[in-house]
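Here is the promised in-class demo. Please do not try to memorize the tokens; focus on the logic of going from shape to residues.
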């Protein structure tokens, strides 16, 4: 093979800080091409004989891991060249073509590049909310890294602990951090399944993602009844806000986004059947008289393919996402007015109906596994976050039953 790869320090041109770029130098048919590894060193930190970074280098958490990363880049490049030679394509390619193929192959180890691919796929699948969360996480990481490149190999246990410390030191919450870390973990898991990275570099095996239980957002059934009995027919927007809230409670706490996407075609044989926007998990809910009354109010005179609720106005997925967000913001503002009229001290939001349904089910003795299925959760751990503590009177009843049983 007349093609060689060498790791070299580009000592021809120094940067303003006196460092030089570390390169993969490709020699093919006596022509040289170079690929920057995104690493900049002072000559004193480079071992020219061993082609390795010295332990004196302070620009990384682990020099050993960084050297392993560099070696992997070279190994990947050699693997590409070997496959080109075996397929008898190598001889006909220029060094620039080989360089492009190696760069494309090495892009796979870039956390940013792979995450961008995930975002693009989510947009194609119309999972706009998930795509926005991934974009938020990428922005946070790029800010933390001061726009420096970030490869999967760089995200170690030590990196995660430092990122956690940085996030909390700036006054942010554990739950906000949890969103970032769970998204990063999901990207790692997906990359491993796609064979983009090896499972051996997975950093979350021993790293615990902490999540603090937030203040419960459920209200008692007595407050639900206050909302139901509230007469706000003189204010159409307030009346419709009330109906949105009750519809969500009656339909197992259906999220606002899923409610917005319901169409007449989702009503089949006296039931509402649909898939959640967020998880694609199917729902199948019996239409009770209370539910039917609300459907009749909004859906009367519409075609089968029309949306039941007047929330989504546009056609593209991104515009529809914006329609839902805009409507939800105004819905939450009007819920504050309803809470005031009903004398409810709890902060009333679109999530309260969902939490209230879950807590009501728990208080009635419905098993958590069943509640989890009714809410469309992937696991009971998520459901437990929704559930409020049992009221004191129910706890007292259980206490007495336990004591009385022990006396027999």
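The designed amino acids, position by position:
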């Amino acid at each position: 093979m007349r093609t060689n790869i060498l790791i070299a320090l580009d000592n021809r041109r120094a940067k303003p800080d006196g460092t030089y770029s570390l390169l993969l130098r490709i020699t093919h048919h006596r022509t040289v091409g170079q690929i920057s590894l995104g690493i900049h060193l002072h000559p004193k930190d480079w071992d020219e004989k061993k082609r390795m970074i010295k332990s004196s280098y302070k620009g990384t958490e682990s020099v050993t891991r960084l050297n392993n990363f560099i070696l992997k880049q070279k190994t990947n490049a050699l693997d590409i060249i070997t496959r080109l030679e075996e397929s008898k394509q190598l001889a006909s390619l220029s060094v620039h073509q080989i360089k492009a193929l190696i760069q494309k192959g090495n892009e796979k180890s870039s956390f940013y590049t792979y995450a961008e691919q995930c975002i693009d796929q989510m947009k194609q699948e119309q999972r706009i909310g998930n795509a926005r969360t991934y974009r938020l996480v990428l922005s946070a990481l790029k800010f933390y890294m001061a726009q420096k490149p970030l490869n999967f190999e760089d995200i170690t246990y030590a990196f995660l602990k430092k990122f956690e410390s940085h996030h909390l030191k700036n006054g942010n919450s554990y739950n906000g951090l949890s969103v970032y870390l769970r998204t990063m973990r999901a990207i790692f898991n997906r990359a491993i399944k796609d064979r983009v990275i090896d499972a051996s570099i997975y950093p979350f095996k021993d790293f615990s993602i902490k999540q603090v239980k937030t203040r419960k957002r459920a209200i008692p059934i007595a407050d639900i009844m206050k909302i139901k009995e509230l007469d706000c027919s003189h204010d159409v927007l307030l009346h419709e806000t009330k109906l949105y809230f009750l519809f969500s409670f009656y339909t197992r706490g259906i999220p606002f986004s899923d409610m917005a996407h319901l169409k007449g075609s989702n009503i089949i044989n006296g039931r509402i059947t649909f898939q959640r926007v967020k998880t694609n998990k199917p729902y199948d809910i019996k239409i009770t008289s209370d539910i039917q009354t609300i459907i009749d109010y909004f859906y009367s005179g519409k075609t089968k393919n029309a949306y039941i609720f007047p929330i989504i106005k546009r056609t593209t997925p991104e515009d529809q996402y914006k329609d839902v967000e805009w409507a939800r913001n105004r819905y939450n503002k009007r819920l504050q007015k309803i809470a005031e009229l009903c004398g409810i001290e709890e902060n009333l939001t679109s999530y309260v109906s969902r939490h209230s349904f879950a807590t009501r089910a728990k208080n009635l003795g419905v098993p958590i596994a069943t509640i989890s299925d009714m809410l469309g959760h992937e696991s009971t751990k998520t459901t437990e976050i929704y559930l409020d503590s049992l009221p004191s009177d129910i706890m007292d009843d259980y206490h007495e039953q336990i004591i009385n049983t022990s006396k027999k």
